[in-house]
Amino acid sequence: MSTSSLPGLVLALIPLGFAARSAAAEQALAVVEGDRRPADRDAIRVHIDRIFRAYVEKDRATIEATHSAEWRGFLGASRSIIRGLDTYMKGADAFLRLPGGIAAHRFEDFDLVFYGDVGLVSYVADVDITDGATPPEIHKTKYRSIDVYAKLDGHWTQVASHLNTHPDILEARSQEPQPLSAAARVEILARREAVWRAYFGNDRATLEELVPEDTVAINAGEEFWHDRASVLAGAADFAASGARLVRLEFPRTEIRVYGDTVVLYTSYSYELETEGKRETFSGRGTEVFVNRKGNLVNVGWHLDSGR
After folding, report:
1. Mean pLDDT by 10 residues, the chain (307 residues)
2. Domain end point (choices 130, 152, 175)
3. Measuring CA to CA, how many Å separate 36 from each of 31, 39, 114?
């Protein structure tokens, strides 16, 4: 072979070499079921169990050690991307400060596939949550997640995740009455009273905050149904009449919470003074509030004059 033919031979071999490397890369990234790599599968499964145990034991150091420095993902109801371990740990710290926490977990479904040194884990887990009381009360919930694992320095670690409450739980919460803490009850009752006092005090700013555009209101003895505009107009008319509220009470209130909706079944009694004369009004009512972006607003009520 003459030396003049070498450049042609080299050029001919370049595509072959590129093709070989491409084939090797494709093979390395081809999906491999977890059962075909049992050692790696088991290592990742142990790692996930270790994370759960760390939350059970409130072991912050282990939680931090089991997640990569450049961790990415979503947790629960997070509305923005969690970028980096420091941001992840802020959420973890908030969870660890709760009086209760995770008590136990069981995988209902678990799947793992590999693409080279990257593992994709999908699972559904039943989780027991304790409220921290003595004795503790256990609440059942369920999570679904996809975790991304990478082999870094020869060890599998979690580099990303998207964990959220399972739809079964979210649907149940929206359909069944939810537990109501003492603090939440106080907040709901305060909001309800704020609406009434804002109406009788013609506090337009508060009414505009707490009574949204879609409000539908039915007052005792009135054929006309109210929207937000007529509620505001009614408050202004009351102020113009010269009457004033001298007493407001809610003798009985039952509260039911369904997801982001709060229903109050209540009795009410209030006293008005007009030109030195006082008159008492009482009855029953159903009031509906909705939590919108953390703000509890009064979307409707139906009052009657019965006792």
Report:
1. 54 56 62 96 97 96 98 93 97 93 95 97 96 86 97 96 94 85 93 98 97 96 94 97 97 94 97 95 97 94 85
2. 175
3. 11, 9, 9
> Is 8 inside any structural domain?
no
CATH of the domain at 171: 3.10.450.50
Q: Name the residue among 53, 227, 197, 181 with its Cα closest to residue 125.
A: 53
Of 118, 152, 175, which closes a domain?
175
Question: Going along the chain, which residue ranges are E strands?
Answer: 31-33, 67-75, 82-83, 101-115, 118-130, 138-152, 155-165, 216-218, 244-249, 253-258, 261-274, 277-292, 295-304
The Cα 183–Cα 260 span in angstroms is: 16
Task: Give me 4's structure tokens.
Answer: 């003049």
Look up residue 66 and give its amino acid: T
Structural domain for 102, as ranges: 30-175
Partners of residue 265 on adjacent β-strands: 254, 286
At 83 the three-state DSSP class reads strand
In a domain, 80, yes or no: yes
The span from the CA of 157 to the CA of 68, in Å, is: 6
The reply to whether 154 and 38 lie within a common domain is yes
Looking at the structure of the chain, the number of domains it has is: 2
